Amino acid sequence: MQSVTSHNAAGVSSGPPGGASPDVGNVRDEFRALTSTCGAYGLTTRAKLEITGNDRIRWLNGMVTNNIRDLEPGYGAYSFLLNPQGHILGDFFAYNRGDRILVDTDQTQVEKILATFDHYIIMDDVEVANTSDKLTAVGIAGPNAKEVLRAAGLEVGDLRPLQIEDIAWKQTKASVVRGENEEYPGYEIWIAPEQAEQVMASLRSAGASPASREVLELYRIALGIPRYGQDIRERDLPQETEQQRALNFNKGCYVGQEIVERIRSRGNVHRKFTGFRIAGLPPAAGGKIQAQGKDVGEVTSSAVVPASRGDRTVALGYIRREVGTPGKEVQIAESSATVSDLPFADLLTR
User: Fold this and answer.
1) How far apart are CA 72 and CA 301, in angstroms?
2) Which of 103, 277, 302, 332 is the most exposed place for a label (fewest CB within 10 A)?
3) Integer Cα distance of 340 and 330 in angstroms
4) What is the chain's mean pLDDT, rounded?
5) Furthest-apart CA pair in the chain: how many Å?
């Protein structure tokens, strides 16, 4: 769940979230709820992995791009998992749960992440287990998210980004996780799978509108949250993704650090991940971005977002840094476009 969740994200998943497909007429109302009140949604495509053993913190800290060593109990961090050449094998949130580390990622990444973890567990006191069958999540996002949580009996304190609070709810245990994005609030409720339907019903009774996977994809793009496998690929380098939240330059060694540090010391990479506003139809993923007749980038995600001030076509993708300044005019497919900062803030206003 940044993300908001992508996560992104806690709050908004960085992977394709669960939920029923909406009628076309509901898309605008559902998106409006996420930006003006709140929407609730299932996160059944998220996976939970548990890392236990006495060496778990030292070991994971040597595996990922963020600082796990100094992560306080009850807090999480967004990280990349790299290969020795510095390319991105996956992304996830890692939470210090005291006696264990809980990894939250998308189901599509589980096989690769588990295989990579297994490859690097040598003489370490570390065990990794997929506990997705025991723990699932329901998400809620929007300006009124905290008030709706309280009305549903899921009251928490003033949580900081990626902080967890364990609570009792209707004679069962639940954990509430705050999303990364402070400006666009979101939360995840972690519960046993058999409790998910009851949690969702309580949130809707308290005022949350249902949000489908299609609408959450529009919300993700408007927030500018990249999704691994679509906007972040194995061929991409960490600094190209503009996800500085995943990088810590003050920690010890980790797999791929040499490449990340070399890029930092020698200057920026040639490409960057950013947004585009398009005067036309949404281009297909992989569509070329051109400036003065030359290819300068590619589209990775696009959508028509039903904003309050009218529908807007936007896209996410990579562009060469020398032409990637906000306001720069480019060509995407048959349409004119301009480079935009992320998130697309005007599409997320009430």
Assistant:
1) 35
2) 277
3) 11
4) 93
5) 64
